[in-house]
Hints:
This protein has 158 residues and is mainly β. The protein has a domain of 90 residues: Immunoglobulin-like, CATH 2.60.40. 11% of the residues lie in helices and 30% in strands. It is built from one helix and seven strands. The chain is flat.
Amino acid sequence: MIFLQNNFLIILSIMLVGCGGGSEGENKGETKSPDSVPIVMLPPPPDNIVETTADIIADQNFNFSTKFSLKLDAKLVGLDQRAYINVCLSPDPGKQLDYNECLFRSPLNQNGIQESLMISHSGIKLIAQIWFYDGTTVPMEYEWQYQVNDDEQHFLIR
């Protein structure tokens, strides 16, 4: 029995010493941070100093606008029934098309549609759906995305 008590006291003493047991001084919630390298911020070169928006110099052709015109040209060859077209913002992957985010809606007939849509920025994708009034034909779907190399943007649906 004395052997067990002695072993217990020895193990308890080792655990207390191993855990530290105390501190080197009072620590009132302060944490010591490791030595870090100071970050030196260099001032911009003198020729790029901008104090007001009037100091900003832009290229003559830059108009500070992200808007552009998209030419929608939809004509289905052989269309012999009434149809309707929706052009909407493309949903995130795995989500359904939100018809509240449509930019253009119109009936579509054999003459087709040619419209110019004002788009706010080039980072969007569009989906055009052509629905048929008979309700039995599966809607046709077309996708459009901004083409960086094209001077004029076209959404051609055939």
